C-alpha cells in the first residue's frame, strides 16, 4: 500500500510532465535528495535568504561577464539584487496568501471534484470577466 492509498487519496494521471494544477507533483531525484537533506536541520531564515541573495548576485555577475550574454545572441541578463529584494517581498506577501489558501483550497478542491465540468467552466468564465472589469475600473479611475 502506497502513501496516498493509506490516506485514501486517489492519484491522477497528468499530461503536463511533472506539473499539475491539481497539486502534488513528482520531483526529480536530485530535488528530493536536496529537500530531504534540508528538512533534517533547522536554519535561521534570514541567514538562508542572505546566502541565497549572495548566490543570486554571483550568478548575475558571472552572467553579465559572459561573452555569450548579449543583445546579438538574444540573451540578456536583467537580474540584480533588486530582483532578489523583490523576491523576498513577494515571498512575504505569498506567505500571507498561503495562510488563507490553506483554508480555502480544500473547499475549492472538493467543489471542483463534485461540480460538473460545464458548471466549473462557466464559473471560471464569470470570475475572469469580473477580474477584467475590475482591472478596467482601476485603470480608468
List keywords for this structure.
single chain; 141 residues; mainly alpha; 5 helices
Categorize the overall geometry.
extended
Structural category:
mainly alpha
Main beta-sheet annotation: none
Radius of gyration computed on alpha carbons? 21 Å
Task: Tell me the fraction of residues in β-strands, as a range.
Answer: under 5%
N-to-C terminal Cα separation, in Å? 58 Å
Listing every helix as H and every strand as E from the N terminus to the C terminus, the arrangement reads HHHHH
Poorly predicted segments:
none
Number of helices: 5
Mean pLDDT: 77
Instruction: Please tally the β strands and state the result.
Output: 0
Helix content: 55-70%
Question: Would you summarize the structure shown here?
Answer:
With 141 residues, the chain is mainly alpha-helical. It has 5 helices and no strands. The longest helix is centred in the last third of the chain and has 34 residues.
Please describe what this structure looks like.
This protein has 141 residues and is an all-alpha fold. The chain has a domain at 1-41. 67% of the residues lie in helices and 0% in strands. The protein contains five helices and no strands.
Structural topology:
Elements: H1 3-7, H2 29-39, H3 45-65, H4 81-114, H5 117-139
Helix pairs in contact: 3-4
Amino acid at each position: 500500500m502506497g502513501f496516498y492509498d493509506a490516506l485514501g487519496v486517489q492519484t491522477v494521471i497528468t499530461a503536463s510532465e511533472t506539473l499539475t494544477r491539481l497539486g502534488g507533483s513528482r520531483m526529480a531525484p536530485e530535488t528530493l535528495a536536496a529537500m530531504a537533506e534540508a528538512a533534517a536541520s533547522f536554519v535561521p531564515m534570514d541567514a538562508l535568504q542572505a546566502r541565497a541573495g549572495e548566490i543570486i548576485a554571483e550568478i548575475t555577475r558571472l552572467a553579465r561577464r559572459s561573452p555569450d550574454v548579449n543583445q546579438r545572441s538574444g540573451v540578456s541578463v536583467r537580474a540584480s539584487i533588486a530582483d532578489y529584494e523583490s523576491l523576498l517581498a513577494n515571498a512575504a506577501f505569498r506567505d500571507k496568501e498561503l495562510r488563507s489558501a490553506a483554508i480555502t483550497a480544500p473547499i475549492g478542491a472538493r467543489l471542483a471534484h463534485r461540480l460538473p465540468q460545464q458548471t466549473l467552466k462557466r464559473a471560471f468564465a464569470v470570475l475572469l470577466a469580473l477580474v477584467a472589469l475590475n482591472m478596467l475600473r482601476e485603470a480608468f479611475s
